[in-house]
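Sample A.
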Amino acid sequence: MPSPRRRVLVIGLDGGTFDLLDPLMRAGVLPFLNSLAQKGLRAPLASVYPPKTIPAWYSFATGLDPGSLGIFGFTEPDGGPGKSRIVQSFRPAEAVWDHLSRRGVPVGVLNFPLRAGYPIHGFVVPGMLSDNPPTYPKELRATLEGELGEALLPELPAYRGADREAWMSLATRGVEQRGRSAELLCSQYRPEFLFVLFRETDRIQHQHWSELSGPASGVGPDLIAFWRSIDAACARIDAAFRAAGGPSVTLVISDHGHGAAKADFFTNRWLAQEGFLRFKNGDGAGRGATGSRRRLLARALLLSEKFGPTRRLVSSIADRLRGGRRRESVGKLLGGESSFESMAAQIDWQKTTAFSYPVPEGIYLNRYNLTLTEDQKRATVRELRRRLEAYPGAHIEVYEPTEIYAGTNLTQAPALLLKIDDLGTEPRMDFSYPDPMLATRPGFFYGSGVHRMNGILIAAGEGVRPKFEQTPRSLLDLAPTILETMDVPVPPGMTGRSFAPLLGEVAA
């Protein structure tokens, strides 16, 4: 008699890292997640590059790397210079739940980054990319909100320190609501595969990494309450999923890890300094009245970091200037335009050979300079790589897409991808600082955390034996593993390697 097919629950903690979870588990803040880690498989989970939410979650879902999907960040080129759009979807590739659905397996997807739900054998409640996106079935949103007694909460707004209490409360409410939503959906649909994503974890870590990365005893009570709500919601979802009966496996995963933001590299400033990016006049390059004003302002702000009273004052002012058109206009008055989009009209596109936009980890050859020959393009790539790898202010690793991707859907790919100081230095596309390298991120910058490659993998359930691995598994391994665990054939083209044998089997 064949073994019964196991059901699979996948809980995504966006940006989850053992660097943070381990101290919280030891402190007793995460009893449920700790119990899963103790009785099941635990391993680091290597992300794709760039380790960003959209390409990473889409790669998890499809088992295809960014080079196969043609997706390398949140946005992709769209139209002329300085124009982009949010990537539309991972489709026409199929997600793991699509493969299952076509074989009659009931599935559920809650809060995955999509613009809209679509027909499937089960339900889809999208998240992240737009407020109030259509669900599948269409009437599901109204039904779910009626049972919850409140509207589904959208993505968290931009953070301001003055609003910390309300912002943290909203993040915790979102987590609790998602736990209740999953519970209701499990009861109604009884899915055999369920994916639930908590995006709030990434947002919290970006903003509060400096506080979270210390001893658990020093973490603020609002952050502890948030993480307790994550643990409780995971426990609630797990119990609701298992209540349908039958053997099951629970996977807790992340799309990437997290770590300290130590420095910032302004790629377009470097390209301008090196002559690859050219302006119609000197202003955008940091010369002229606007450039001089920005340079003086930058030096004054950095000087303020050395003194406690001025550091607090500047941080307070910067906090007040975040968000809203009026606040942004004040910032532009003080320092001039800074976004790549706003500076695009000042760039001489007939003389520029390379620029960084819209993926900050990438450098693109200038497709708008039609005089560039193929030989010139190859020579430019070689020279860019040589100079970047020799850059004295940081350790810059430089890759061509074909060096890191198995797929060849590279039409929208950057010519080069950068990894700086093992991701401790964040590449930036804007012109908000007058020099290429800001060696220490000041306190008035937004956020203290950035993405890292190593996420988390925890697997527990019927047939899974305790195992601690130190060698990272790949995010691309998950789709074939889930399919094989559920006795569904793995389609050709997936580049990951299934580790389903480590999840064991259930006796017939």
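Sample B, a different protein:
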Amino acid sequence: MLQTVNPFLVTGLLFFMSLVAGSLSEKIKVPALILFLGIGMLAGVDGPGGLNFSDAVAANNVGTFALAFILFSGGFQTKWSDIKPIVTQGVVLSTLGVFFTAVVMAIPIAMLPQFNYKDAFLLGAIISSTDAAAVFSILRTQKVGLQGALKPLLEFESGSNDPMAVFLTITAITWLSTPDVPVTELAVKFVIQMAAGGAMGYLMGRFSCWAIQRLRVANEALYPVWGISIVMATFGLTETVYGNGYLAVYICGIVMGGGDFLYKYSLQRFHEGFAWLMQIIMFLVLGLLVTPSEVIDVSVMSIGMLISCCLMFVARPVAVFICTVFSRFNWREKVFVSWTGLRGAVPIILATYPLTEGHPQAKYMFNVIFFVVLTSVMLQGKTLAELAKLLKIDAAVREARTWTLNFDITPASGTDETREVDLIPDAEVIGHEVKDLKFPDGVTILLINRGEKYMIPKGRTVLESDDTLLLFGDRAQLPIVERRLLRRAEKDS
């Protein structure tokens, strides 16, 4: 029994098992979040671990804390240039799309004898947001990419639709506890939350870039502390002024991701690793909170499967097609966006809100939602790659390279930065020696990736088709050099 063992040893074992599970997920093509939840369930009261954890308030607090860092990291790694063309469509999906999903789901749920119409809306609100982290984890493990603007659209939607789901869930709980609350009051509260969240996120992002650049820390190892303080201060300050903290940290991350400041690369890598740690902790805690014997109850499974089918085949497609009616996406892309409405950690976290409020149906609803998340990830996740190929919207996946050198923005780097350039087969520079390229002063090729080899270029090094070059130099000159490297050779007439 784990509860009789030293807590440090228990925590270390759970983290180690999660690390191994994360590595196995790519081989067995099962999302890591499912394995993390499984480890938590095995360590729980019904599993061999025997840990008895039933504190919904603690689980809710852990989930809120973890989700703030996960959203910030997602925003930090999002390039504004990628999402700018689809930002309007993404905002519509992350707001109206979530609302339509909740409303459409509430209709069939209200017909079930277990729930009244208010409980039905609460359930619909809880399962209304998507989890693209699971989507792209699956697409990455199955080596499938997406054409056009689909990837940035899904990333932006998943990162920005959680605030809407949180608001709808809290609104539904308020509606249950205070039946006579005016609808206009809730609408005004929504506008204030979103406006304050967006404004605070932008301001804190700009302020953070300015502060890191000017208030230099003597020891660069302390810069991750900057990152942690930024997330916590942004979330806490936004909630203090009645804004939406989740939206604020996501926008703050996007703003910082597009800014320039000291040790930006190191801070991004830190937050990427910290976000993974938060995911592991969050899923382990949620797994511990679940009682597996209750989840596999016949009533829970039958209701859960019915809700899952309505969500996957009715509610999500209806919401997507309504919200994209005036978009440039074709019907194939809309079908794929509809099917990528995977549910993940957020619905499970939101399912703890009724538990903390003492709702009489809270435990049953939590088990149903947990089952819905599992079926959504397993059924949709297993078929995403095949659907992308069937709809002919898949694209080749560019493998991430691990360079043997890393460069960061430091006090001495000025405007210098690195950039990767993939040479195309018919590029004009193919077959030419490096010394003949005549780059601007200050721009150089640091490394060349050729197949599985990395080489430091010399003057007589000949560029070959499909080489990847790691350039270093002034950021104003790098785009000019990139265009020159990608210029196609003129064909003989």
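Observation for Sample B: Residues 76 and 268 are 7 Å apart (CA to CA).
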